[in-house]
Design a protein that fits this description.
Layout: H1 4-18, H2 33-38, H3 50-57, H4 68-80, H5 86-118, H6 126-139, H7 144-148, H8 153-179, H9 182-200, H10 209-220, H11 225-232, H12 235-258, H13 267-286, H14 311-328, H15 334-346, H16 367-377, H17 381-384, H18 387-410, H19 414-424, H20 429-441, H21 445-458, H22 464-475, H23 482-493, H24 499-511, H25 521-534, H26 539-552, H27 555-568, H28 574-585, H29 589-603, H30 611-638
Length: about 650
C-alpha cells in the first residue's frame, strides 16, 4: 500500500507535470483536426440523445474500426463547450494525459515488483523510481503532439485503456498465483479484455497489447502463465488458434499492401526508412532537443536501398546491436531489456508495413515509456538514494519539462506555431504550406507566396502544393503562370492522389462559386479531365467534375456527372445532395422528393451516415412544398 504522504506527493507531482501543457490550450485546430472535428457535422451535436451519440460514434474515417470512443468524446466536447472551442478540447486531452501518467506510475510499481521477484538484481525505492519515470514520461516533449494536437486523443485514449488493461491483467495474475481466487482472477481478466476492446475502439494500434503482456510474462516472471496455456489446450484448439493467427497476419499484410497505391514509396522502401525513423525516435527520447520536435517530419528522405542513404545501414546495425544488448542482459537487468522490447513492440503497427506517413511523434506515446524505463534502470541501486543523483534526476526533469513548456507556448497560436515550426523544420514542405496559409490570412502575401513556392520545390511529386499555389494566386487576383498549371497536371498524372490533394481539391471546388476563385475554373476543369481519364471509375472525381460543370452553369452536364458518381458508388451520398439542389433550383420538386427518398434509404447503409444533412434538406424541401401549397390556395381564392 502507498502511504498517504506518498499519495499526496504522487498527486501533486504529476499534476504539476501536466501543467506544462497549459500555454498551448488556446492554440488552433490543425491538420487532421479539420476532417475529424471541424468538418464533421455528426459530432456537432445540439442535444444528448441516443441518435446523436450513435451518429457521432459512426462518423470516424481514420481507421477500419472508425474509432468510435474518441469520436463520441469530441461530440461531448462540442456539446458542453457549446461549439468548436479549442481550449475545451485541449484541456480534455491534458486531463487524459494526466490520468495516463498515474497509470504509468502504477504500472511501474508492478513491473518493478515483478522484476525484483525474478532476479537477483534489486531495484530499490520502487515508489520514487516509479514517480521519476512517470514524471519524466508526462513531461517529455515527444508526447506533446498526443496532447495539444486534438485529434490525437485517439492515441491517448487507446493508451489509457491499454494501460488499464495491462494493470488489470497483472492484478488478475497476482490473484491467480498468490490468492488462488478463481472468482477474482476471472473477473479481472474479463475486465482486462473489455478494456483492450475499448482501446481497439479508440485506435487500432492497441492490437499490439497482447504482445506487450506476453513480454511482461517472458521477461519479468519466472513462471510465465501465458506460455502454459497452449499446453492445456487440445490439438484441435491449438490448430484453430494457429489458423486464426495465420489468417490475421495474412489479412493485415493484404490490408497493408492495398494502401501503397497512393504512396510515393513501396512497402520495402518504407521498412528500410523506418529503421532510420526508429533511430531518430530513440535520439529524440534520449536527448530531447527542442528543434528535433515538429508537427510534421515529411522531410525524412525515403531509403531506396540498404546503402541509400548510407544512414539506413548504420541504423539497421544500431537497432540490431540494441536488440542484442537487450537479449544479453535480460537476466542481469530485466527492466532494461523489457523497456527496449516494449519500445520495439509498440512500433510494430505504425512503424512497419502499414502504408502510413513515414514519421509522426505521437506514435511514441506508449513506446517512449519503455525507453525512459530502460534509461532509469541503468542507474545502479547504490547510487539511486544519494542526494547528488536525486539532484541530477531533478535537473533532467527540469530541462525536459522546460522544453515541453516552450513547445507548448509555440503551439499557443497559429502564428507562433507556423513561425517556430518553419524555423525548426525548414525542409518540411507541409510546414511551408502551413506557414503560407497562416501568413495569407494575416495579409503577409509575399511571405505566403515564398513559403508555398518553397514547398513546391521541396516536394516535386505532391500535387497539393501547386494546387494551393494556384488558389493563393487566384485569391490575390494575380495571373496563374502556364508553367504552374503544366506542373500541376504533370503531378496529377502521377496518380499519387494523397489525402492532402483530395482535401485541397474539395476546398477549391467549394470556392468556385466565389468571385475570388472564378479564375481557377478553366484550370480546375483541366485537372478533373486528367483525373477522370486516368480513373474513370472513381466516384469522387466524377463528383468534383460535376461541381465544375455546375459552376460553369452547365446543369445538364453536372446532373450527368453526379448521376455517374452515384452509379459508381451507391453509398456515396454527396452527388445525390447536388442533384437535389439542382432539381429544387429548377422547381422540379417531385423529382427532388424521389432523389431525397433514395438518399434517405441509402443513408441507412452508408459508411458515414449523413443524418443531419439529410434532415436539413428534408426541412428545406418540405418548407418549399408547403409554401407552394399555400400560394396555390391563395391563387384559387383570388379567382372570381
Amino acid at each position: 500500500m502507498i502511504k498517504k504522504t506518498h499519495q499526496l506527493t504522487l498527486f501533486l507531482t504529476l499534476l504539476v507535470c501536466s501543467a506544462v501543457y497549459l500555454p498551448g490550450i488556446f492554440g488552433p485546430f490543425v491538420f487532421d483536426d479539420q476532417g475529424s472535428i471541424l468538418d464533421n457535422s455528426l459530432i456537432h451535436i445540439s442535444e444528448l440523445s441516443a441518435e446523436s451519440i450513435i451518429g457521432s460514434a459512426q462518423s470516424g474515417t481514420a481507421g477500419p474500426l472508425k474509432r468510435p470512443i474518441p469520436m463520441v468524446s469530441f461530440a461531448l466536447n462540442y456539446f458542453f463547450a457549446d461549439g468548436l472551442y479549442a481550449p475545451a478540447f485541449k484541456i480534455t486531452n491534458i486531463f487524459i494525459h494526466a490520468l495516463n501518467s498515474f497509470l504509468v506510475f502504477f504500472l511501474c510499481l508492478r513491473l518493478i515488483d515483478a522484476a525484483n521477484n525474478s532476479t537477483q538484481y534489486k531495484y530499490t525505492s520502487p515508489f520514487y523510481l516509479s514517480l521519476f519515470i512517470a514524471s519524466l514520461w508526462v513531461l517529455h516533449p515527444i508526447n506533446l503532439t498526443s496532447v495539444l494536437y486534438i485529434v490525437q486523443r485517439m492515441t491517448s485514449l487507446a493508451a489509457l485503456f491499454s494501460l488499464i488493461s495491462i494493470i488489470l491483467y497483472l492484478k488478475g495474475r497476482h490473484a491467480l498465483t498468490h490468492q488462488h481466487s478463481r472468482f477474482s482472477y476471472t473477473n479481472l481478466f474479463t475486465l482486462s479484455f473489455a478494456s483492450w476492446v475499448l482501446a481497439l475502439l479508440s485506435k487500432e494500434n492497441a492490437a499490439s497489447l497482447p504482445l506487450l503482456i506476453l513480454l511482461i510474462e517472458l521477461l519479468l516472471f519466472q513462471n510465465p502463465v501465458l506460455l502454459n496455456l497452449p499446453r492445456k489446450c487440445n490439438a484441435l484448439t491449438r490448430a484453430l488458434l494457429t489458423t486464426t493467427f495465420i489468417y490475421c497476419i495474412f489479412t493485415i499484410f493484404t490490408f497493408a499492401q492495398s494502401g501503397y497505391q497512393t504512396r510515393s514509396f513501396t512497402m520495402y522502401e518504407r521498412l528500410l526508412t523506418e529503421t532510420r525513423v526508429i533511430s531518430s525516435y530513440l535520439y529524440m527520447i534520449a536527448i530531447p532537443k527542442i528543434n528535433s520536435f515538429s508537427l510534421f517530419h515529411d522531410d525524412k528522405a525515403i531509403s531506396t536501398s540498404i546503402t541509400s542513404p548510407i544512414s539506413t545501414l548504420s541504423s539497421i546495425f544500431f537497432l540490431f546491436a540494441l536488440a542484442f544488448i537487450a537479449v544479453k542482459f535480460r537476466k542481469k537487468n530485466p527492466l532494461f531489456s523489457f523497456g527496449i522490447a516494449w519500445f520495439f513492440t509498440g512500433h510494430l503497427i505504425e512503424s512497419s508495413i502499414i502504408a502510413l506517413e513515414i514519421m509522426h511523434e505521437h506514435r511514441n506515446y506508449l513506446p517512449s515509456f519503455g525507453i525512459i524505463l530502460s534509461l532509469y534502470s541503468l542507474i545502479p541501486a547504490k547510487f539511486f538514494n544519494r542526494w547528488k543523483m536525486n539532484v541530477l534526476l531533478g535537473l533532467i526533469m527540469t530541462v525536459v519539462g522546460g522544453t515541453t513548456l516552450l513547445k507548448a507556448y509555440q503551439w499557443s497560436s497559429f502564428q507562433n506555431l507556423s513561425y517556430f515550426e518553419s524555423i525548426h523544420n525548414p525542409l518540411s514542405p507541409a510546414i511551408q504550406l502551413l506557414h503560407s496559409n497562416v501568413n495569407l490570412k494575416a495579409g503577409n502575401n509575399d511571405i505566403a507566396e515564398a513559403a508555398i513556392k518553397k514547398a513546391i520545390l521541396l516536394d516535386t511529386q505532391e500535387a497539393s502544393y501547386p494546387l494551393h499555389y494556384q488558389l493563393l494566386l487566384s485569391k490575390l487576383d494575380r495571373p496563374i503562370p502556364m508553367g504552374i498549371q503544366l506542373d500541376t497536371l504533370e503531378r496529377l498524372r502521377l496518380k499519387q492522389i494523397t489525402p492532402s490533394t483530395k482535401s485541397i481539391l474539395i476546398t477549391i471546388s467549394n470556392c468556385l462559386i466565389n468571385k475570388s476563385c472564378l479564375a481557377l475554373l478553366p484550370n480546375y476543369m483541366e485537372w478533373l479531365m486528367v483525373l477522370t481519364q486516368d480513373a474513370p471509375e472513381v466516384a469522387f472525381y466524377l463528383y468534383l467534375q460535376g461541381k465544375g460543370f455546375q459552376a460553369e452553369g452547365n446543369q445538364v452536364a453536372a446532373l450527368n456527372a453526379f448521376q455517374k458518381a452515384h452509379e459508381k458508388d451507391a453509398h456515396y451520398l454527396q452527388p445525390l445532395f447536388r442533384i437535389i439542389s439542382i432539381l429544387i433550383t429548377n422547381h422540379q420538386f417531385d423529382a427532388a422528393e424521389k432523389v431525397l427518398s433514395l438518399a434517405e434509404l441509402k443513408n441507412k447503409g452508408a459508411k458515414i451516415p449523413l443524418n443531419n444533412a439529410l434532415k436539413s434538406v428534408r426541412r428545406e424541401l418540405d418548407s418549399i412544398r408547403e409554401k407552394k401549397k399555400e400560394n396555390n390556395g391563395v391563387s384559387q381564392l383570388d379567382q372570381p
